[in-house]
Amino acid sequence: MCGIVGYVGQKQALEIIVAGLRRMEYRGYDSAGVAVVADGKLEVRKKAGKLVNLETLLGADPLPNSTTGIGHTRWATHGGPTDRNAHPHVSSDDRIAVIHNGIIENFQSLRAELESSGVILESETDTEVVAHLISKALPSVDHDLPRAMQAVCSRLEGAFTLVVVDSEQPDLVVGARRNSPLVVGLGTDGNFLASDVAAFVDHTRNAMELGQDQIVILRADSVVVTDFSGNVEQAKPFTIDWDASAAEKGGFDLFMQKEISEQPKAVADSLLGRIDESHRIKLDEFNLEPAIIRDLKKVIVVACGTAAHAGMVAKYAIEHWTHLPVDVELASEFRYRDPIVGPDSLVIAISQSGETMDTLMALRHAKEQGARTLAICNTVGSTIPRESDAVIYTYAGPEIAVASTKAFLTQITATYLVGLFLAQTRGTMFEDEIRSVLAELNDMPSQVDLVLDTTEPVQKLARKLASARSVLFLGRHVGYPVALEGALKLKELAYMHAEGFPAGELKHGPIALIEPGIPVVVIVPSPSGRAVLHDKMISNIQEVRARGAQVIAIAEEGDESIVPFADHIIRIPAVPTLMQPLVAVVPLQVFALEMARERGHDVDQPRNLAKSVTVE
Ligand code: M6R
Are 233 and 291 members of one domain? Predict the structure, then answer.
C-alpha cells in the first residue's frame, strides 16, 4: 500500500527512483510522483494515474540532474487519486518534500493547528501536514532535519513510513517508520530507502531492517539509525537472497503468468533443507521448546484473503495430524471480539508480505494475551516475522502481481511442515506416517508441473464464459477453501460476482442463486481418497444441474464417474486428499487470469487494490 523510494549517492537519482517505482507499482497505482534536490531547490513532478503518466510528464517537463531524491506510488486513503493529492507534498516555503505510506490518525487536529497559524494546505491528504510541521520545526532545532523529523514523528499517531528531503541539505534523505514498512539498501555508489527491497535489488543485495519507531539518516556514504528521541540504535543487516531478474517478467506478458508458472519451484524451494537425512522434519527457525509444543492446547491461524484460505486448508491437515483444535480467524476480526487465546495457544500469522496491518494487529493482540507466535511469511525482514517468536519463511521469491498465486501454494506447504513438526514433537504420528506425507509433499512440484502443462482448455473455457454475470464455486473438505480462493481470484481480477460455498451448504440458501446457464465450478474430491465426500459432491452437482447450472468439474484423472454429471471437465492429477488443494487451485488461477484478460482488465494491477495492505 503505497510504494516509497529514496536515494542519495553519486548516481542520477531520478533514473534509480523511477526504476524503483516501477518495481513497486504493485503497492498502489492511483498516482505517482518524484522530488529531487537540485541547485538548492526542490523540483517536484507528480501525476494522477499509473506510473506511465508520470513518465510522460517527466518526458515533457524534465527534471534537472540530481543525486538526491524521493519517489512515491500511491494507494489513496485520504483524498481522491488526483494530481493535487499525489505525493510528494511540499511545505509552503518550498523547502521540505515528503512522501508517506500509512494513515496519520490525528491529522485533523494537526491540520487545524496549522491552519490557525496561517498555513494554507493544498491537498486533502493526511500527509501534507508533515511537510509543514517539519518546516516549522526546523528553526527550533538548528535546522537539523533528523531532529525536526524526530520532533514531528513524536507528535504523529497512527501508521506511517515517511521519507523527506530538504532543499537546504541536498546530501541528505531522512526516513521514519511506525507500523509501516521501510528497508534500507546499502550500496557502493549511494544508499537507498524503500518500502520493499525490490526497489533497489538492481543496485545492491545488502539491506538493513528498521525497527519500530526508528528514524534513518541517509547520506551517500553513511546510514545512521536513531529512535524518535535521537538515541542511536542498531539495525539488523540482511542479504537479499534473490536477484533483480526474479522481480521482472522474464519473458511473460504478465507477472501473474510468471508467478503461476513458478509454483512448482516455489513449493520445492519451500521444502528445501527442511527434511533431514533420516526423513525427520527440521525447522530450525521454529525455535519453541519441545516442552512448550507438547503443552499446546490449540492452534489459531490469523490471516487475510488468500493467506486465510491457506490457513483454512491447513486446519484440516493440522487437526488430523496433531489432534489439536485449529481455529482459522480473519485477522481483521480477531482482536475485536474476545478470542480465547493464552500461553497454551500457538498463533500462526500467515502473510506473504509480512506487512498486512490486520494480521500484524491480530498477532500483537495474541502476544499481549501471552500466546506463542509463529509467522509464515515470504518477505524476509518484514514486520510480522520480526515481531513473532518464530518464523518459517516460504521461499516463493518476490510476488508482484496483486493476485496471490505462488504464495498460496507455499503457505500450504509451510503450514503442512509446521503441522508435521508439531505431530513429530507431540508424538501424534508414527515416523513412517510422517515420512509418507513428506514423500507426498515432495512429489507436489512435479504434480503442479503436470497441471501447468494442460492449461489450454481452461483458458479456452474462460474465454467462452467471460460474459457470465456470476460464477459459483463449490468444494467440500479441503476443496472448500479452494472454492473460496477460486472465487476471490475471479472477483479481484475479472470484477465479476463470484462466491465460494461448501457444497453441502448450498441447499440452506445459496441454491436460490442458481439460474439457467450459470457456471458452477466444482472441486470434486478424489473418489479414492474420501469416497463419501465424492459421492456427496455428485449429489450436490445434480442439485445444481437440475436447476439449469452448467457444471465445470475440476476432477482427478481417472475419475470417470464424474463424466455424466459435468458440462466441462478440467483434469488434475490424482493426488492424496490433503494434497489436492495444491493442484486444484492452479486451473482456477488460470481461469481468473484468462477471464480478466478477455474482459479487458489489467491483470497485474486490478482496480482499487494494492498488493500489501498496510492500513486497517
Ligand atoms: O501479504 P498478505 O499475505 O498478508 O496479504 C493478504 C491478502 O491481502 C492477500 O492474500 C489478498 O487477498 C490477495 N490479493 C488475494 O489474491
Answer: no
